[in-house]
């Protein structure tokens, strides 16, 4: 096994819906795409063929660990190119999959951490729904009995509503994140970085590289040795940065390619290997 662990967010970091692709070139010059997710018999998520080749090769050079806020069911709909990842982080760190199966020891660890200093999910979920206006609330959900989220008409959200909700949640040990049309409420101990640290401990990886676009990815980026964020998303919109995090100018699918190239370059530097990425 290689000594580098590459932990990356998926949606709007490596894979993209059609709406998030941000293809700015003429149609005749658009890149060929590979569909990696089908939902309700319709293609949903894509990456460029170049990105697919980069990801396939990366998995042979480093330990690639998807780190997503998706539930296990949502994650298992994705079929990334290359060998199936041995480890995957789902539910924002709530589940650690090992060869596709949730690790029971990690589930117990997470449950203990959440019981120590967070308001219960039912309380937060109830407040989240009550604070929403039916005029712009489309759906409300809980995920894996760990966190809650709303699907909203973002353009109709009142000024200050997110800030007010954030303050309420913060006092109860929860954080709030707005990603596209989804408003997430997540317990503060529930982090991608904690699950990735557990993978690092088990595998003995000596270096961690990461990438992500949302505020829920901030802890993952901060915990890495080197990290990248695209030119879109919450982190870019708020100007979030850190000394070891590279803010890329690319947006959409082009950012996904650039992130994978950056991973390749960093892995080759660490291995002292030669070669040219795809």
Q: Main traits of this protein?
A:
single chain; 278 residues; alpha/beta; 5-stranded parallel β-sheet; 4-stranded antiparallel β-sheet; 9 helices; 14 strands; 25% strand; globular; disordered C terminus
Protein topology:
Layout: E1 4-8, E2 33-39, E3 42-48, H1 49-61, E4 63-66, H2 72-76, E5 87-90, E6 95-98, E7 101-102, H3 104-117, H4 121-131, E8 137-143, E9 147-152, H5 161-170, E10 174-179, E11 182-187, H6 192-203, E12 207-211, H7 218-223, E13 226-229, H8 234-237, E14 245-247, H9 253-271
Parallel strand pairs: 1-4, 1-12, 12-13, 13-14
Antiparallel strand pairs: 2-3, 5-6, 6-7, 8-9, 9-11, 10-11
Helix pairs in contact: 1-9
Describe this structure in words.
The radius of gyration is 18 Å and the shape is globular. It has helices at residues 49-61, 72-76, 104-117, 121-131, 161-170, 192-203, 218-223, 234-237, 253-271, and strands spanning 4-8, 33-39, 42-48, 63-66, 87-90, 95-98, 101-102, 137-143, 147-152, 174-179, 182-187, 207-211, 226-229, 245-247. The chain is 34% helix and 25% strand. The protein has 278 residues and is α/β, with parallel strands linked by helices. The longest helix has 19 residues, at 253-271.
